[in-house]
Amino acid sequence: MIPHDEPLRSLLRLRRMTVDEARRILATCLHRKAETEAALAEIETAIEKEAATASALEAGDDAVEAFGTWLKRIRTCQHAAVEQDAEAEARIQQARVVLVAAQAGLKAVETAEARAIAEQQAAKATQQQHALEDTSRAYRS
Predict the structure, then answer these.
(1) Is residue 58 part of a domain?
(2) What is the reported pLDDT for 63?
(3) Are 15 and 109 in contact (CB under 8 A)?
(4) pLDDT at residue 4 in the model
(5) pLDDT of 102 over the 60 cut
(6) Average pLDDT, rounded, for the chain
(7) CA angle centred on 67, ends 63 and 71, rounded to 5°
(8) H-type helices in 2-140, by residue range?
(9) Residue 65: which domain range?
(10) Phi and psi at residue 113, in whole multiples of 5°?
(11) Which terminus of the chain, N or C, has fewer Cβ atoms within 10 Å?
């Protein structure tokens, strides 16, 4: 690290925190997506189960009518769950874009830091070389 470049170090810490926060947000979005997928699967399972019950030979007209009423209600829930799932997917895509941008920002600062360190090392090596040359000239004289 560059000893006298506090602004660069501060920016590097900030960029790392930004990447960490973007990762947390993406993880939250992925968790929410898993929840919406589970809710959709649960609804599908319930529909299959109730349809099987209503279509059983021993089921009467009341069971079929009750299923029809229930199905209308559950389809509303299913539609809402599909919308929530689509929204969760959109948020995942947004979170991924933010994460990629944060990672690019971090990479830029890391590159700037590496360049500054290399320049500092090159300057130090040049100084050492000049000191050796000066010592060599003084010795020859």
Answers:
(1) yes
(2) 86
(3) yes
(4) 57
(5) yes
(6) 92
(7) 175
(8) 6-54, 61-140
(9) 6-109
(10) -65, -45
(11) C
